[in-house]
From TrEMBL:
This is MD-2-related lipid-recognition domain-containing protein. Residues 25-138 form the MD-2-related lipid-recognition domain. SUPFAM superfamilies: E set domains. The gene is LOC100273402. The keyword Ribosomal protein does not apply. InterPro entries: Ig_E-set, ML_dom, ML_PG-PI_TP, NPC2-like. It holds the Pfam family E1_DerP2_DerF2. PANTHER family: NIEMANN PICK TYPE C2 PROTEIN NPC2-RELATED, OS07G0159800 PROTEIN.
Length: 146
């Protein structure tokens, strides 16, 4: 009887979705930003050095965003290790309004140290208005075998 329950439990586990869990997001300040971020999905999680990683940021706004930029800073413990600025319309369809997703893909160098990292990301409008500012953590695993 117990073996039937184990088989049934194993079958049910196979039916569960395999999507990654959304990452917690913190806002940089208590400011009421025009762009609200509801979550971040990181694929794969943990990120693997030398392989592409995708960061999908789910957001919404009442504004129409026709152009702007993403300012991205990455910290490893207390040290800034990477900074870049991207065109927002290269990461989502413009004009963006209502619910939208910013999707950013990055391949980290193969020698990237494993551990916990933090991304700070500002969404800046075309008139330099800060539309949102968030931070979230992610992990880099050890080099995967090929």
């Amino acid at each position: 009887m117990a073996s039937k329950h184990l088989v049934l439990a194993a079958c049910l586990l196979l039916l569960l979705p395999t999507a990654s869990v959304a990452t917690d997001v913190d806002y940089c300040s208590k400011k009421d930003y025009p762009v609200k971020v509801s979550g971040v999905q990181i694929l794969p999680d943990p990120v693997e050095p030398g392989k592409p990683a995708t960061f999908k940021i789910s957001a919404s706004t009442d504004k129409t965003i026709e152009k702007g930029k993403l300012v991205i800073d990455v910290k490893y413990f207390f040290f800034y290790v990477h900074s870049e600025t991207r065109d927002i319309c290269g990461e989502t369809s413009c004009p963006a309004t209502g619910d939208f997703v910013l999707s950013h893909q990055q391949t980290l160098p193969g020698f990237t140290p494993p551990g916990s990292y933090t991304i700070y990301m500002k969404i800046v409008g075309d008139d330099n208005e800060e539309l949102s500012c968030i931070s979230f953590g992610f992990s880099i695993g050890f080099v995967a075998s090929s």
